[in-house]
Specification:
transmembrane helix; TIM Barrel; 28 helices; alpha/beta; WbsX; 37% helix; globular; Spore Coat Polysaccharide Biosynthesis Protein SpsA, Chain A; 815 residues
Length: 815
């Protein structure tokens, strides 16, 4: 097929090139026959024809060049010339036309790559095992619901149960991925016993060029066993034997037409080839990979990198790989919010994500399902993943690929393609995540340059002896990087302040000892670490405490950090808080509106305060009265939709309204008065006593942005890749990771309204019947589940996957 394609191309372009020569010959013959012309007229004619011929040839060459460029994308020349490395160029023409979002800077880029499962077309092996024209669509169509009562993910009617070989299908997939911001695709490639299996789609792609998008191959090198469809994995359909040098060469030669394609993905001029299960290659890995790398050079391909796919327990100690990539969920589980936390394993490390996970079509009631998948939460987890890539990129000259599993793993409920449940929202989520990251995130090198410049400017300010605001930050092990509300979010919010004249002192109230290293890596001269004496560090101390540590910092602030000690205002914040860029705008050059200045905050306390009166919290009321005042079920979660500002309140000295993190105190007056926090019982009484003793208290009168997102704020949770659980039990109301929720609240799947979550995302609630039971628990009323809850019910459907019709032939239905 490759030879036929090349013969066609050579013939076509030869005809194009020969056209001007043929025209010139015709014109020459015509002029020679025109003997009746005088010598002068003949000269004038020949001159005129020569000019016309020259112009024609020039135009023709431009046309040919244009056709060649279209035939061979400009990105190929871009890579061969190493222009990103030499010029720091942000894009290539082909990438712009494809809609790929670059996220580039000075030679660095993030290039999202989607895995493609090429099974959705009939092949002889499946015909022999499962029946004529069997594909995995049979499994997808058979399963209707999973054990959470949710419909299994199915293709949207606009794409249907397509044939992956069809030209229109592959063209649509390429266009969809380009429109969604993807750079390329990774096709799962299958090779057993010296021959390819299920290679129809990628072979056809070489002929007609669809999907028209850069591609690479990922060798799915596991043996095919009955584990794939949920049965005992002891039965092997096709064994994986790696053979000897001759077998490696046969495999390499078969791959050569793909490697020679101008669309094949490279990094620094080298071909990129992934191996799905590196541990299975075993002792063959070293010599086989070395042979392939050498042959790639011998064939004039510029070299080859083997990208070894990480599984949960994989380690590399003997032979360091060329590169490692994360294939989710094998590398990091199904909790997408944890993917950015994965540590770099090798010099070249490509991060990964997945869309969703529900193997019901393959495994029936034994399936593994993640019920909290949603395009919105996925988008925010992708934003954080993009930030993590830029904060720790691969060395210059090596790409930063982002491997997303998958375009079309419909048998695993894991598909970027438009679905009946979500439409094209996953594609749009990816595009939006890339756009947000382009605007919001700096590459590490940009960040270091910005920090150096900011540190210099701060040092040159005339008012260097006096900060406008000093932030005393209480950190705890609950604020480490692997936590939902972590200190990185807090510090990044400070660095985005419109008013840069702030200082921050961070202290740690437990013995986790992570803050000093964190402060060192902020590279910000405005931030310092105060190391408390060991006797003030208590491992059991709650994160919202830390009064003793605060008092110790303030007692030494004038000598530890004179600029902070001489600030106009200070505020005491938890490392879980974050600040809007306008938070410090009113405090400029020593402006002092009052002794105490309040900001607007959304926190768990303000949410509880707004809920007061419909929460049955009147201690003197009877249980029945309490229950009648409880928030109606239909308001759970829905109360936040387009109504988040309602829960943002100005901090005032009142119960449920006062928040230290949203209250600025006159630093000079506070230190002269000798005040401390340690005796505080209720924070709002402390502030109220200050106002009674003559401290002036000013609150904002104009409407403005919510200045502070406090601990457990709904809005910050909703944009974190996690979700809020809106329970009638206050001790359960907070932000959850998917894995934490499953372990703490979600064990009994009949209790939670997963269908509401699938529809809206970002917020979970109990089912109506379970909600009424919880209200009864809180108020002391009788539990009585209604006959008709009037809401969504969790439905259990047993999905039976039949055994294969035969086991003699090779199975070709998955990894």
């Amino acid at each position: 097929m490759e030879d036929e394609k090349e013969r066609f191309n050579v013939g076509f372009y030869s005809q194009l090139l020969s056209a001007p020569l043929a025209l010139a010959k015709t014109m020459s013959n015509h002029s020679s026959k025109d003997s009746i012309l005088s010598s002068f007229e003949g000269f004038r004619f020949r001159k005129s024809m020569a000019i016309k011929l020259t112009a024609f040839i020039c135009v023709w060459l431009i046309v040919i060049n244009s056709l060649i460029l279209f035939r061979r994308p400009a990105s190929t020349f871009y890579k061969e010339l190493h222009l990103p490395l030499l010029t720091g160029s942000k894009s290539s023409d082909s990438e712009q036309s494809s809609g790929y979002s670059h996220n580039t800077w000075n030679g660095y880029s993030v290039k999202p790559i989607a895995y493609v499962f090429p099974q959705f077309h009939a092949i002889p092996e499946n015909d022999n095992i499962w029946g004529l024209n069997w594909t995995e669509w049979d499994n997808v169509q058979r399963a209707t619901h999973n054990t959470f009562g949710l419909e299994t993910i199915r293709p949207h009617p606009s794409i249907g149960y397509y044939d992956g070989l069809e030209f229109t299908t592959r063209r649509r997939q390429g266009q969809y991925l380009r429109d969604s911001g993807f750079y390329g695709v990774a096709f799962h490639h299958y090779w057993f016993g010296g021959r390819p299996v299920m290679d129809g789609i990628i072979s056809q792609m070489l002929i007609d060029g669809e999907p028209n998008i850069p591609f690479m191959l990922s060798w799915a090198n596991e043996p095919w066993t009955s584990r794939w469809d949920g049965r005992d994995s002891s039965e092997t359909f096709i064994a994986q034997d790696y053979g000897t040098l001759e077998d490696w060469r046969k495999h390499f030669d078969w791959l050569l037409p793909f490697f020679r394609s101008p669309q094949y993905i490279r990094s620094d001029g080298r071909l990129q080839f992934a191996v799905y299960k590196p541990s299975h290659v075993g002792k063959h890995a070293g010599p086989m990979y070395a042979a392939w790398r050498q042959w790639a050079i011998d064939e004039g391909l510029g070299g080859l990198d083997i990208i070894e796919t990480k599984w949960g327990t994989d380690k590399w100690s003997d032979i360091p790989p060329d590169a490692v990539n994360q294939f989710m969920p094998h590398a990091g589980g199904t909790d997408q919010s944890k993917y950015p936390l994965e540590r770099r394993l090798t010099k070249v490390f490509h991060r990964g994500s997945m869309v969703c996970w529900d193997t019901t079509p393959r495994h029936g009631t034994e399936a593994k399902t993640e019920p909290t998948c949603h395009p919105t939460t996925w988008m925010y987890s992708m934003i954080d993943l993009l930030r993590a890539i830029k904060a720790d990129p691969n060395p210059l000259g090596n790409e930063n690929f982002l491997f997303v599993n998958a375009l079309n793993e419909w048998g695993e409920g894991n598909a970027l393609e438009p679905s009946a449940q979500f439409g094209d929202r996953y594609g749009k989520a990816m595009k939006q995540a890339l756009e947000i990251s382009d605007k919001e995130h700096l590459w590490r090198h940009e960040y270091l340059a910005e920090r150096a410049q900011t540190n210099k400017e701060i040092g040159e300010l005339q008012n260097t002896t006096k900060a406008d605001v000093c932030v005393i930050i209480h950190a705890h092990k609950w604020h480490k990087r692997d936590q939902i509300h972590n200190i990185e979010i807090m510090v990044r919010s400070l660095q985005k302040q419109n008013n840069p004249n702030w200082r921050a002192i961070i202290y740690e109230s437990d013995r986790s000892d992570f803050v000093s290293d964190f402060v060192l890596n902020t590279f910000d001269s405005r931030i310092s670490f105060f190391d408390l004496p060991r006797d003030l560090k208590n491992e059991e101390r709650k994160p919202e405490s830390g009064y003793a540590g605060f008092d110790r910092v303030m007692s030494e602030v004038s000598t530890f950090d004179p600029i902070c000690g001489n600030s106009t205002y200070f505020l005491w914040a938890q490392a879980s808080d974050s600040y809007h860029p306008t938070a410090f705008d009113a405090i400029v050059n020593g402006t002092r509106p009052a002794d105490i200045y309040s900001l607007k905050i959304q926190s768990k306390h303000t949410i509880e305060h707004v809920t007061k009166g419909v929460q049955g919290d009147d201690e003197e009321a009877t249980p029945e009265v309490k229950a009648s005042k409880f928030m109606p079920y239909h308001q759970r979660c829905t109360r936040f939709i387009n109504n988040e500002d309602k829960f943002c309140l100005t901090s005032i000295p009142d119960f449920g309204r006062f928040e230290f993190s949203a209250t600025m105190f006159n630093t000079e007056k506070f230190l002269k008065t000798g005040l401390s926090f340690s005796p505080i019982d209720l924070p709002y009484t402390f502030a109220k006593n200050l106002t009674k003793s003559g401290w002036t208290f000013v609150t904002l009168k104009e409407s403005s942005a919510c200045h502070v997102m406090g601990l457990e704020a709904y809005s910050s949770c909703a944009t974190s890749g996690n979700f809020w659980f809106d329970s009638p039990k206050l001790d359960e109301v907070r932000c959850y990771r998917a894995s934490d929720f499953g372990n703490i609240i979600g064990k009994d799947i009949k209790k939670n309204d997963y269908m509401y979550y699938r529809e809206h995302g970002q917020c979970m609630r109990y089912t109506r019947g379970e909600y009424l039971n919880k209200v009864a628990d809180v108020t002391g009323t009788k539990k009585e589940k209604p006959k008709d809850e009037g809401g969504t019910h969790v439905v259990f459907v047993t999905v039976v996957v039949p055994p294969p019709k035969a086991t003699k032939a090779a199975k070709a239905a998955g990894r």
